[in-house]
Amino acid sequence: MAKKAKFYVVWQGRKTGIFTDWKECEAQIKGFEDARYKSFESIQEAETAIQRDYWDFVSKKESKPAIKDIPVNIGKPIKNSIAVDAAWNTSSGDMEYQGVYYATGERIFLQGPFKDGTNNIGEFLAIVHALAYLQKKESELPIYSDSRTAIGWIKKKHANTKLVLTPRNKPVFEMLQRAERWLASNSFNNKILKWETEYWGENPADFGRK
Q1: Distance CA 115, CA 125 (A)
Q2: 79, 159, 204, 207: which one has the fewest Cβ atoms less than 10 Å from its Cβ?
Q3: Contact 129, 109 (CB under 8 A)
Q4: What is the pLDDT of residue 4?
């Protein structure tokens, strides 16, 4: 009887993503400090998992680091900042994003839902939206996002998405193009910072639907 295929999700490793071969997955995590990965029985489960947080899928025996274990170089988040986050519906494919002022929890913007998007795209658009908002306010407040992928896209000024263009998600791609044009033609001094969920708890802009 043929061995049932497994799908390996790597959230943190030399390369991240979904792998169908254990050897390939192992190459990304072996010897990598604090590697985060998990196997799934179907590609659908893996695709859902890669859009969410590693801690949503670990066993109860594993736990997030205690607050007392916060590394010195991480410290505490800056209260006077904007936090952004996106939500992606696994059943409908709808995506939306929002930004909040961290100190008060006040929502600054909310966009969507948009058909057939991805969480990473939503995170990217949210950061650009926050940058444009702060530029109009002539503010250099830092921006927090819990998406390493989106932060990386911002640095490259390009959303390296594998999402396929369809009539349903055409508005999403139009927004991506506008966002990339904005990044290409504008400069900013705002720091884009990683929200350390495992140490600080949920992103203040989280939609609370996990």
Answers
A1: 15
A2: 79
A3: yes
A4: 67
- pTM for this entry: 0.68
DSSP the chain: -PPPP-EEEEEESSS-EEESSHHHHHHHHTT-TT-EEEEESSHHHHHHHHTS-GGGTS-TTS-PPPGGG--TTT----SSSEEEEEEE-TTT--EEEEEEETTTTEEEEEEEEETT--HHHHHHHHHHHHHHHHHHTT----EEES-HHHHHHHHHTS----PPP-TTTHHHHHHHHHHHHHHHH------EEE--HHHH-S-TT--S--
In this prediction, residue 100 carries a pLDDT of 96
Other Cβ atoms less than 10 A from the Cβ of 114: the count is: 20
Residue (of 138, 56, 142) closest to 99 by Cα position: 142
Tokens, residue 183: 């990044």
The answer to whether 143 and 82 are in contact (CB under 8 A) is: yes
Task: Check: CB of residue 198 under 8 Å from CB of residue 55.
Answer: yes
